[in-house]
Structure formats: structure tokens, C-alpha cells
Amino acid sequence: MRGFPTHSRRSPPRRNLTTACALALLLSGCQSLGTDGLATSDAPADISAPAASAIAGDMVSRLAEQIGPGSATVSLKQDSSPFGQALEAAVRGWGYAVVTDQKTDAAARPVPLAYVVIPFEGEVLARLSTNSVELGRAYTVTTTGAKPVSALSVMKRG
Q1: How confident is the prediction along the chain (158 residues), in pLDDT tens digits per residue?
Q2: How far apart are CA 153 and CA 147, in angstroms?
Q3: How far is CA 146 from the centre of its chain?
Q4: What are the distances in angstroms from CA 42 to CA 60, 125, 128, 147?
Q5: Contact at 8 Å (CB) between 126 and 50?
Q6: Cα Rg of the chain, angstroms
Q7: CA dist 11 → 8, 14, 15, 20 (Å)
């Protein structure tokens, strides 16, 4: 038949759409909730220290834009994973006081902070959650760290 191609055309990869959908799913809260209503903090143990530091540094700088730099005490679950340690260092580096698994007086009102880092199709999806805001972003991990490969997703709670 004339006018009809005899070969099939492959559609272009939909990596950006897949990443956006995965990020939306990540931000939808499909994680188990801790006692404070936030996702239970979790990160893979095999993420490299430079990648963990780059992701934590970027995410905490974006968090500071939302809650104000150094203006709060952050409550963070104690964690020995590379990302947990990098996140605590980044939070302190931005001037926040950090409490880990200890009781504080009611007047202090610490901001609970939870995180989730998930490997997905060669990238890493990262999310930070507080009671008032959730931030999410996809990263590609390199030998020297990590680079953002998506826009920052911000979800504010009323």
C-alpha cells in the first residue's frame, strides 16, 4: 500500500514523564507514617557520602527558603546512614539547632523533619517532610556527588 510506512516507529523515551510521575507518587505520601504524621525516615545505606552530602545540602537550602534560615529547632530521628548523617550536618550548617530522639519542652516547639530517599531508574528521588511543607526532587548520582535532574516540588500544608 502506498503512503503507509511498512516499518514501525518507536516513540521517544518518556524519561521526564516517568520521573515526574514517580516524583508525584513519592510526594503523594505512599510511605508508612511515623507517630508525628510524617513519613518514616529512610535512605539506602549504599548511597555514597559525596552524593548524600550534595543531595542533603541542596534539599536543606530549599527547606530554609520555606521555613526561614536558622529560625527553628529541628527534630531529626537519629540515623547512621550516610544520608542521615549528611542531612544532620546540612541542617546544622544552615544554623538550625538539632534535637535527636530526645524530649524538648513544649515551649521550644521543634520542627519534625523526616526524609525519604529512593533509587529509581538510575536516579535518586529525595523528599524532605515537615508538618507544614514537603519538598521533593530527583537527582542523578555521579562519582563526585549528585546533580538535580528535576524541578523542585513544593507542597505546602494548610
Answers
A1: 555 555 445 444 555 555 554 444 444 444 434 435 566 777 887 889 999 999 999 999 999 999 887 778 999 987 888 999 999 999 999 999 999 876 666 666 888 999 999 999 889 999 999 999 999 999 999 889 999 999 999 999 87
A2: 15
A3: 13
A4: 16, 12, 11, 20
A5: no
A6: 19
A7: 9, 8, 12, 18
Exposure string over 22-60, b if 16+ CB within 10 A, otherwise e = bbeebbeeebeeeeeebbebbbeeebbebbbbbbbbbbb
Instruction: Report d(CA 23, CA 109) in Å as an integer.
Output: 30
What is the residue-wise DSSP string for 39-82? BPPB--TTS-HHHHHHHHHHHHHHHHHHH-TT-SEEEE----SH
Q: Where are the alpha helices (DSSP H) in 8-158?
A: 15-27, 49-67, 82-93
Cell triple for residue 43?
535512605
The phi and psi torsions of 69 (rounded to 5 degrees) equal -70, 130
The position carrying cell 555514597 is 48
